[in-house]
Amino acid sequence: MAGTQEEVYRASTYAPVNIAVIKYWGKKNVELNTPTNSSLSVTLSQDDLRTHTTALCSVETAKDSLTLNGKDQDISGARTQACFRELRALRKELESKDASLPKLADMKLKIVSENNFPTAAGLASSAAGFAALVRAIANLYQLPSSPADLSRIARQGSGSACRSLFGGYSAWEQGSQADGSDSAAYEVAPASHWPEMRAAILVASAEKKDVSSTAGMQLTVATSPLFQERIKNVVPKRMKAMEKAVHDRDFESFAALTMKDSNNFHACCMDTFPPIFYMNSTSHAAIRLCDAINAAADKTVCAYTFDAGPNAVVYYLAENETQVAGAIKAVLGDKTGWEDKRGQSIKAAGTPLPNT
Ligand code: ADP
Ligand code: DP6
Ligand code: CO
């Protein structure tokens, strides 16, 4: 049955942001969007930072389209197209087995998305964005796909998105298959394993970055000798140590690895030619502030990390809320957030918000 003229099919979903503690930076295969190294992240609560995406289709829909926060986006890029193609192929398969299903795979898709936090500012909008896009379409198509299947598809939209299909602590295994079929995320531990984890976000700038993650990492791969050291000798050991720190709920180790990996990633950006500066003087002040908080506590109670942007994410445990979030608020006042999210603590993601 082809859809009737008036029928509009739709599905919506939320997806969370994830902030890596062992960073993905570098593509092994640009077409497949596979990485030069595995990575590990904490997914943040969707109550605070989230993308909401609706996917619609009908026989009347004239062309594929995507609007983000009300603005039309260019969807001609190979990565968005790969997500559409893979999801349509899975829907086709269902339709070929059951002739009573409406022929959604032949209809054009209209995607409407909203981020409730700054886009392209180093707060993982591409992660939440592509995780939401893929899951919204999968819901629309009523695909029986697992989070791991959707993760492999979302990876092709934006690498970091593959980790946002999971809550809690997740890792992206770089994979070894030439076709990228084993390059996807898996759950290292659910949020309930270590529910005391908190993140404070210090917004140094909500402006769009001048070098996108995609462009930045390709320049680093092409020009940085330090990066070769990172992927060969630094990250593999850190991945193992970080998985262990999460399993053992060992905050001291988690924090040391997190800060060192952020520093190493930004050193590689600096070693890129011409150099890329994602951090600014406010970012440097945030690092000094975390150092001072840890020194005053006489142990490691907080860990900073910076994605490809100037904004700090500071991880700490709930028991140290006053020491960490309190100190951040006291020093930075209302400069720590955007709109209503000023320096507040954000939980590691627990129960996903329902599809709506
Ligand atoms: P960020 O640090 O925010 O992840 P990136 O440079 O990795 O920045 O990616 C930003 C790009 O991700 C945006 O310019 C846009 O193309 C895409 N993106 C962000 N949010 C969404 C969304 N909700 N839906 C689809 N694409 C999105
Ligand atoms: C620094 O996933 O945004 O945030 O795959 O090109 O879309 P593309 O890149 P993206 O890169 C994220 C880089 C990072 C580290 C991380 O999230 O692991
Ligand atoms: Co991104």
TrEMBL record:
Any one cellular component term from GO for this entry?
Answer: cytosol
Q: In which pathway does it act?
A: Isoprenoid biosynthesis; isopentenyl diphosphate biosynthesis via mevalonate pathway; isopentenyl diphosphate from (R)-mevalonate: step 3/3
Q: Which Pfam families match?
A: MDD_C, MVD-like_N
Task: Give the GO terms filed under biological process for this record.
Answer: isopentenyl diphosphate biosynthetic process, mevalonate pathway; sterol biosynthetic process
Query: Locate the Mvd1 C-terminal domain: which residues?
Result: 200-356
**The organism of origin for this protein:** Acrodontium crateriforme
Gene3D superfamilies for this protein? 3.30.230.10, GHMP kinase, C-terminal domain
InterPro entries referenced in this protein's UniProt entry, alphabetically: GHMP_kinase_C_sf, Mev_decarb, Mev_diP_decarb, MVD-like_N, Mvd1_C, Ribosomal_Su5_D2-typ_SF, Ribsml_uS5_D2-typ_fold_subgr
What keywords would UniProt list here?
A: ATP-binding, Lipid biosynthesis, Lipid metabolism, Lyase, Nucleotide-binding, Steroid biosynthesis, Steroid metabolism, Sterol biosynthesis, Sterol metabolism
GO MF: ATP binding; diphosphomevalonate decarboxylase activity
Please report the stretch or stretches of sequence annotated as the Diphosphomevalonate decarboxylase-like N-terminal domain.
15-185
Supply the EC number(s).
Answer: 4.1.1.33
What is the protein named? Answer: Diphosphomevalonate decarboxylase
What does the record give as the reaction this protein catalyses?
(R)-5-diphosphomevalonate + ATP = isopentenyl diphosphate + ADP + phosphate + CO2
Similarity section: Belongs to the diphosphomevalonate decarboxylase family.
